[in-house]
Design brief:
alpha/beta; TIM Barrel; Rossmann fold; eight-stranded parallel beta sheet; 17 strands; binds iron/sulfur cluster
């Protein structure tokens, strides 16, 4: 059980210097107790106090690292029940199931097809992380060979799924360098699986028949010195799965239940008879509150909506996604190319740059920092005013790159053109379209 806010406060310096982001040590202590702050935010905590506070300052749900390479990820580490209270931190990892008796050629084909399922959105690469290799016949050699192939020939990280500790050992030997998640320790094999995970320093999933069973297994494994656990309540019926996910999250966050303070894994592949229903359950579990979901297959139609939902759910609602302020070249613009300007809200940037690219007219796109606000909002908030935009155009250096002095502003910000003209003597301010989809037509007509 963690310390109370008052107990934590007694260990803090009590100088109320405010460097932790809140005005008083008491407020910081309260935030620490409720998991809304991290101890490192106070630079003045003594080593002695730091030791005592370690447990209280540990996240209520332990972040667990899985995998290696470009698809490595962390799961868990969440501090709130609802995204709008703060943010969710570590996106639900997405896995696909493969059986250990799959022949090498089929596995090869599947890995290549799954690897191709990557999507660029708002400057991010959206892709799944894991292949869950399931032992179906106790053949340790086949299990190890498949694990080795997945680990060495694909970017995917692995979940090794077997309850047979000898088969698990063979799998671990084949792919330990990829830091796989071992699934699963159960009441029957907990000693052997716990010992293997501890010896190899690997994360271990725990499966029980219900939450009470999970608590006793989790306590046993933490007693053995294991820290990186992933929980499976054993439920496969949708209502029970959802109830268990919520109960585990609530117990960890609201009751500081350390036995349940770990990320969860759920299996839409075992909850439905077809990929459409699986995808639906996957969507539900991304929102509430699975750390990892396992599907029976990846197709573009099933995976893309899940990855997009995940991006939305795990985006910080208090911090808009932004791109860096500056001059962006689209195509290979030269000194005669048109100059456009917009705000640094990611979505605005990607829509506008996409439309310019689609026009096939090489252009200069100026992106001004408006703290991630869209054109309309930034204009209404005074962050995209004529003075500010004019000053930015002057200092950004675009005048050194073009021979002309024409700049296209978004149609929604037409009213700033007068102030811009005053701020930028000699420049012609052109009002672009309101709707980004009309940019290609606008540029083509201008280019005639
Ligand atoms: Fe107190 Fe530390 Fe915050 Fe300063 S930084 S107010 S000492 S908790």
């Amino acid at each position: 059980m963690g310390l109370t806010g008052i107990q934590i406060f007694k260990l803090l310096p009590k100088t109320n210097c405010g460097e932790c982001g809140v005005p008083t040590c008491l407020a910081f202590a309260m935030n620490l107790a409720s998991g809304k702050a991290e101890l490192d935010a106070c630079p003045y905590v003594s080593d002695e106090a730091r030791e005592q506070l370690a447990e209280a300052s540990a996240p209520p749900i332990r972040p667990v690292a899985v995998g290696a390479g470009v698809r490595a990820f962390k799961t868990g580490g969440e501090t709130v029940l609802f995204r709008h209270e703060k943010t969710f931190y570590n996106p639900t990892a997405v896995a696909v199931l493969v059986l250990s008796d799959t022949d090498a050629t089929t596995l090869d084909t599947k890995l290549k097809a799954w690897n191709a399922l990557q999507y660029e959105r708002v400057g991010l690469n959206l892709r799944p992380e894991l292949v869950a290799l399931k032992d179906v016949n106790g053949d340790a050699g086949a299990f190890a060979a498949a694990a080795k192939k997945i680990a060495e020939e694909s970017e995917f990280n692995l979940i090794l799924m077997t309850e047979n500790s000898d088969v698990m050992k063979a799998g671990v030997e084949a792919c330990a360098f990829k830091k796989p998640l071992l699934y699963a320790a159960t009441a029957e094999n907990v000693d052997a699986m716990g010992a293997l995970a501890k010896e190899k320093g690997l994360p271990l999933a725990v499966r029980a028949d219900n939450i009470d069973g999970l608590i006793s297994l989790s306590d046993k494994l933490t007693g053995m010195g294991l820290k990186d656990l992933v929980l499976d309540s054993g439920a496969r019926e949708s209502k029970q799965v959802l109830q268990d996910q919520v109960a585990i999250r609530r117990a960890a966050l609201k009751a500081a239940n350390r036995s349940l303070g770990f990320p969860t894994i759920a299996f839409p592949c075992e909850m439905a008879g077809n990929l459409h229903m699986e995808t639906l359950f996957g969507a539900l579990l991304i929102a509430k509150y699975a750390g990892i979901i396992v599907l029976s297959d990846f197709t573009g139609a099933s995976l893309f909506p899940l990855l997009l939902e995940r991006l939305n759910i795990f985006t910080d609602p208090q911090r808009p996604m932004t791109v860096t302020q500056g001059i962006y070249e689209i195509g290979s613009p030269d000194e005669n190319s048109p100059v456009l300007i917009t705000t640094n809200f990611s979505l605005t940037y990607f829509i506008v740059s996409g439309e310019i690219e689609g026009s096939r007219i090489p252009s200069w796109l100026l992106i001004m920092d408006t703290e991630g606000l869209s054109v309309m909002t930034a204009w209404a908030a005074g962050k995209f005013s004529g003075d500010a935009v004019g000053a930015f155009v002057k200092k950004c250096g675009i005048a050194d790159k073009v021979k002309h002095k024409k700049i296209i502003i978004p149609g929604y910000a037409a009213s700033i053109s007068g102030d811009m003209e005053e701020e930028l003597p000699g420049w012609e301010i052109l009002i672009g379209p309101r709707d980004a989809s009309l940019i290609p037509k606008f540029l083509k007509e201008m280019n005639k």
